[in-house]
Structure formats: C-alpha cells, structure tokens
Amino acid sequence: MTRFSAALLALAISALGVGDAFAIDRRVRINNYTSYDIVEFYASNKGSRSWEEDILGRNILPAGNSVVINIDDGSGYCKYDFLAVFEDGEELVKYNNNVCELAQFNYTD
Q1: Model pTM?
Q2: Radius of gyration (Cα) for the chain, nearest Å?
C-alpha cells in the first residue's frame, strides 16, 4: 500500500468516527433552577408543526434538580424547540436550541 493510499484510508476512518460522534451526541442536561416542578417536557425538531410525546412520561423534574435527556429522534436534526410545562400550569417555549452543541439547558425564575 502506498503512503497516499494509507493516508486516504486513515482520513476516511477518522471521518467516520467524527460523523458517528455527532450522530449520537444529542444528550442535554435539563436544569430546573425554578421554584416549580416541571411536569411535562417536550422537544420537537425546529421544522415540526406539533410537539412529540412528553419526554418525562410519568416522571417530573422537581425544582432544583436536573435530568439528562437524549433528544435524538433519529431525524439527524440538531435544532429543537423545547416546551416545559410547570406544575402551576405555566408553559415556557424556548426555540431553536442546537442539541448537537448544547451540554446543558437552564430553566430559571
């Protein structure tokens, strides 16, 4: 194998590794720094016209706590809108969150 062929092979292998890392790393720590529990949490890709299922399901995110959520829906999208529903009924929508770059997202009073 020539040096050129070996270099191309190494480049192809490293490119595959980088692509895989981006494809699976859509985990975001949601921090609830408010005084109210989050009783529902939704994340839908920016182009969606409706919210997906409640990610918390039967669980809640108590005030002062956090949870790591894998926002990967298999679409390959990075930009998502978030909807948090609080125990007092207030809804807070945050648009255009890049989950491929975000490590944490904070809800605050």
Answers
A1: 0.76
A2: 18
